Amino acid sequence: MWDRKHLLDIEAFSRTDIENLIALAKRLEPFSGIDKSKKFKPLGLCSGQIMTLWFEPGKENSTRTFGSFPAAMMRLGGNCKVFDEATSSMTKGESLEDTTRILSGHSDVIVDRHHDADHVYTVASASSVPVINAGNGSAQHPTQTLLDIYTMVKKFGRIEGLKVAVVGDLKYGRTVHSLVKGLEKFGVHATGICPQGLEMPGEFRTAGYEERIIDMNDIGRALSELKPDVVYATRIQAERFSGNSGTYDYIIDKAVLSGLPKNAVIMHPLPRISELSREIDADERSIYFHQADNGVPVRMAILCLLLDHEFE
Ligand code: NCD
């Protein structure tokens, strides 16, 4: 059972915790503003409350997570502020623990993204308010996993029995690390498809996980043989490589799509670089932009649960 003190990794969640969170996100979605055709009245559940965004500058830049957490907070009537290490007293040598102690005094919730996978755990141990992991190095991205599962449930009405292929950079892609573990809670054993050198690290492999190491020029053949319901593609995480990452490039284009089942979907945490051809954007099976939108209602639900707000 998730203790709702912090949100640090996907292991903390039971299947029921995820189902409850998804149900809440579904009820909050009409108030999230993601459906531009619908008007809604703002919610005041987090009125007067403050979120601090602590995103490490430079190495861990972000568009979706950095944007949708404050959007979620503001849709709930709360406020946000950004903590910038570069202009803080950390530059004078103030410790991580003291900095956290001070920031949690100013905030009701802290959202943390850092290249050091342990950073969020240290912040959580020194904080007097809930801390959320918004991506810890190449380890996990648990809130992305929750919105990924939400997106699959919206599309298929269930997780059980889905065949999911995670594709691309399985070594450094933190979103697939937490996703494989999250899916396993529903009895879904993902299949990894990756080039040699970008295999899933042992610590993220679940009991039922299988992997196919392929020449990524053969991605179309591998997927048409597997016939997955969900293709979850990832970007090659070039910033985490010391050598040349270009040799791992691959592309999902119309030809690849033509070999997939008619009701299969393409997901991707985004940003995409060249692995998703623009020519597939208009295909109704390409749901990655809807997936990104779902970050707002899911993060609204996370905030309600961590800040103990009932929503009837
Ligand atoms: C992902 C991340 O930061 O891990 N982006 C995101 O949060 N949606 C994926 C990526 O950067 O490739």
Task: Show the helix and strand layout.
Layout: H1 15-28, E1 50-55, H2 64-75, E2 79-83, H3 96-106, E3 109-114, H4 119-126, E4 131-136, H5 142-156, E5 164-167, H6 174-184, E6 191-194, E7 210-213, H7 219-226, E8 230-233, H8 254-258, E9 265-267, H9 288-293, H10 295-306
Parallel strand pairs: 1-2, 1-3, 3-4, 5-6, 5-8, 6-7, 8-9
The chain binds N-carbamoyl-L-aspartate.
Structure description:
- The protein is α/β, with parallel strands linked by helices.
- Helix content is 33%, strand content 13%.
- It is built from 10 helices and 9 strands.
- Strands 7-6-5-8-9 form a 5-stranded parallel sheet, covered by helices on one side. A 4-stranded parallel sheet has the order 2-1-3-4, with helices on both faces.
- Helix 3 packs across helix 4.
- The structure holds N-carbamoyl-L-aspartate.
- The site of N-carbamoyl-L-aspartate has 11 residues, from helix 2 and helix 6.
List keywords for this structure.
5-stranded parallel sheet; 33% helix; Rossmann fold; 2 domains; 4-stranded parallel sheet; 312 residues; binds N-carbamoyl-L-aspartate; alpha/beta; 9 strands; 13% strand
Provide a compact summary of the structure.
The chain is of the alpha/beta class and 312 residues long. The protein contains ten helices and nine strands. The strands form two sheets. Strands 7-6-5-8-9 form a five-stranded parallel beta sheet, with helices on one face. A four-stranded parallel beta sheet has the order 2-1-3-4, with helices on both faces.
